[in-house]
Design brief:
This protein is mainly α. The chain is built from eight helices and no strands.
């Protein structure tokens, strides 16, 4: 807890906590990053699960870049927000649940994308799996659950101890 208390005393934490527009601006950036990340991965996962089968899976690989931008935006804004009240956030069980769900969602997304976008050679030749097998569909469903759970847990942080 000493580290967290020190973190709260840094210039970044003070600026986020005490500047009129810093916290709302970071919250907004966090929401935009979340839309980019969860929206992109959600579309890929829904396609893997069979929604809109006319859409080629191969064409959805470009959404991964948008997901990474969203993840980066969320990581930066999330760390900055965390510093403003690190002791409180770290003691919140919903915050810790959110972090676990993000980690699981990230691992799951890596497995799904590795299964449906196998390697760069396939990308250049256009050879992609046309339809996902049952284990890949299960991973896609789990990914949706992890990311939706992370969003819900993040929202609940303000309302739970």
């Amino acid at each position: 807890m000493d580290f967290l208390a020190w973190l709260e005393s840094t210039a970044l934490a003070t600026a986020v906590a005490e500047t009129l527009w810093a916290y709302p601006l970071l919250e907004t950036l966090h929401a935009v990053g979340m839309v980019m990340l969860v929206g992109s991965l959600g579309l890929i996962n829904l396609r893997v699960l069979g929604y809109k089968p006319a859409l080629p899976i191969a064409g959805m690989q470009t959404l991964l870049r948008l997901a990474w931008i969203g993840f980066t935006l969320n990581a930066i804004s999330g760390v900055a927000l965390f510093t403003s009240d690190a002791v409180h956030f770290f003691s919140s069980y919903t915050f810790r649940i959110k972090l676990v769900l993000i980690a699981l969602g990230g691992l799951d997304a890596a497995f799904v994308t590795r299964k449906i976008f196998p390697d760069s050679r396939a990308e250049s030749s256009g050879e992609f799996a046309v339809e996902a097998d049952a284990p890949t569909k299960a991973l896609a469903a789990a990914s949706l659950a992890f990311w939706i759970g992370a969003v819900i847990a993040g929202r609940l942080i303000a309302y739970t101890p």
